[in-house]
Each structure stands twice: as C-alpha cells, then as structure tokens.
Amino acid sequence: MITRHVVIGGMKHCGKSTQGRKLAAFWNVPFADTDILIEEAYAESSGRKLTCREIFRTEGEKFFRQKEAEVIHILAHTEAPGGRVVALGGGVPSNTLISEDDMHKLGFFVFLDLDEETAYQRVVRGGLPPFLEKEPDPAKAFALLYFKRLVFYRHFSECTVPVGGDDDKETVFHKLVQAVEEA
Predict the structure, then answer these.
(1) pLDDT in tens, 1-21
(2) What is the pLDDT of residue 81?
C-alpha cells in the first residue's frame, strides 16, 4: 500500500505507462499518464482528437511542450487522497517550461533506467517519433537526446530502477514495488 504519489519517468518505451497501470492497480490508486492527459486537453481545447505524436507533428514542439507544462502544473496542484501513480512523457523532466517546484510536487520520482541501445531499438520498433523523423542520423540524434535527458532523470529521481533489455514485465514490476515500498 502507498500513501503518496509515485511518479515514473524515463526514456520513451522504457515501460512507464505499462508499469504505472500495473502499480496503480496493485496499490488500488488512480493512474495518470501525462501523454493521455495532453491528448485529452488538446481535444477539449481544439475539438480535434489527436495522439501526442500527431499534436507534436501538426502544432510543433513549442506548442506541445506548453501543453505538457500545463498538464504537469495541474497534476502537481491536484491532490489524490491515498496517493496515485503518474507515468511521465519522456521529455517531461527536461521541459524548461515546467518549474522545478512542480516536478517535486508531483510525487516520489522513480527513474526507470533503460540503456540507450535498448531504448533506441524499442523506439525504432514503434516508429520514429516526430523529433527524430527528419534527422539525417536518427541513432546519433537519439543518443544525444538520451544523454541530455539522463541528466534530468537523475536530478529528479529519488529512486532508480535499472531495466535491462532482457527483463520481462513481471521482473520490472517486482523491482518497482520493492523500490517504492522500501524507500
């Protein structure tokens, strides 16, 4: 059982949403995925239902990061008695429009640390995101982004859970439960 908010951050395709849903169900608390919240906020304000990828592509990065910051601000200032689990979009910790105070108010930050090579392989399998589509060398651009974001993940994390490429979802889940409950 948890009594606080748990926030899961890490690179794209490290398992934040999958594990976040499982943790929320395990602890019987609400779950929030910032990507879904951005999509819902965009649909409400524009009348158009688009995925984060489509919003980023059609509206641009500046617009997307602003929506992301708005969602984080709302989450940071909304209580959920008994705790909640939040899965962050991969770029949230490095979004300069999000205050450090809001990041800390979100809750206990767990960094799912997936190595760069495995993360890139998963990204490629899922289709290159808009921020890599036009890059002449997507692998190099991803590596630069990975190491830039790594600084922010480490800065905000209160707990790091290493995720190996060969870890199955159950292994990661048990690592997360143990890390949060022992912290």
Answers:
(1) 677 899 999 998 899 999 999
(2) 84
Which of 3.10.20.740, 1.10.1760.20, 1.10.1740.10, 3.40.50.300 is the CATH number of 6-170? Answer: 3.40.50.300
Read off the DSSP letter of residue 88.
Answer: P
* Mean pLDDT of all residues in 92-117: 95
Q: Which residue has the tokens 């601000």?
A: 73
pTM for this structure? 0.91
What is the rounded CA–CA span in Å between residue 143 and residue 120? 8
* Amino acid found at 172: V
pLDDT score, position 126: 83
- Nearest 5 degrees, angle CA 100-CA 106-CA 107? 115
CB 44 within 8 A of CB 146: no
Domain spans in the chain, listed from the N-terminal domain onward: 6-170
Q: How far is CA 13 from CA 10, 75, 77, 148, 180, in A?
A: 8, 22, 27, 17, 21
Dist. CA 177–CA 26, nearest whole Å: 9
